[in-house]
Amino acid sequence: MMAILGVWVAVGLTLFMFSFLYKDNPFYKVGENLYVGITIGYSLVKLIFETWIPNVWRVVHPEAGVWFENHEWWLILPPLFLGSLILTRFVPKYAWLSRWTFAFVVGYGSGLAIPAVQKQAEATAHPLVTHIESFDSADKAATEAEKKATDLAASKGAGSDEAIKARIDADEYRERANAAKARKDAVSAAGARADKARAAANDARKQADEMAKKGPADSEEVHAAQKKATLAERAAIGAEMATWTAYSKSEYSVLTAWGDFTTIVLFIGVFSVLFYFFFSIEHKGPVKVFSRLGIIFLMIYFGASYGYTVMGRLSLLYGRLVILRDACYPSVGFATPVLLVAMITVLVVLHFQNKDKEENA
Hints:
Elements: H1 2-18, H2 26-60, H3 77-86, H4 98-124, H5 135-156, H6 161-214, H7 220-250, H8 254-276, H9 286-326, H10 335-360
Helix pairs in contact: 1-2, 1-10, 3-4, 5-6, 6-7, 8-9
């Protein structure tokens, strides 16, 4: 019963909000006020039970047993004081005190944003061309470095500065060789898994085809075999993609070249956009061309952001339409058609009532 009531409430509120497409009306106002009120109430309750009680009340309340035992309880006093100053907004005479809190929040937020911007800048500063050292060349360089370190230790002593430096260099070369060998072994292991997954997929597809030939095509056994074959093929494709990924980390490949291409495009885009806002020199000739390129990247970004926003809104709309569709069946009492007819009837009555009032006025 409660589930059906929940469906009716969801359908009703959805239709209330969609009624604004007709015009501003009492149904829309009810839905709007409910949305705002419930959101504020939920936020307030969440603030009390997830912020105030665990971070303040349980620390200072005597029953918590930590008022004197916790020697750092006084750390809650500065934020508690600053938070209390926000309430002075309700007293016009002392409202200026709230500026201290807002100044602290803005400054603290700016400080938190700086490391995030720095990380974004670090993500942009990638090498334009990827250099992947093969195992053969790395192993050869490590062997030569180890031989050099051994010769220096024999000729000048193991404790000499040159021998120690050569040993450190040899260890670094050997670590690079071990990393290259690990990448090479990862390619072999991924290839073996891909071959095994492809063989399993071929066997599953063969069994499904044989079952389809022997028995009825719409039987449950055939459907189960077809589904098993499809899942096996998807697993095989995933294993093959993993092989390509491992190979791109071990040897320069098409995937690595594509990554370098995207890095170069990102590099050009970032600097052309920054150069577009650089006004210390006149934008003429090549400078104008490069700045215009920045405009193109900006337009692409704005268009992609707008498209992403529109798709998000369409996703929400699709969810609401699915709810309205699912509520058209007898199992929920034909909620959508009943409420829709009732709302249309009320709106028609209100329309004629308002029309009569306007004519009499």
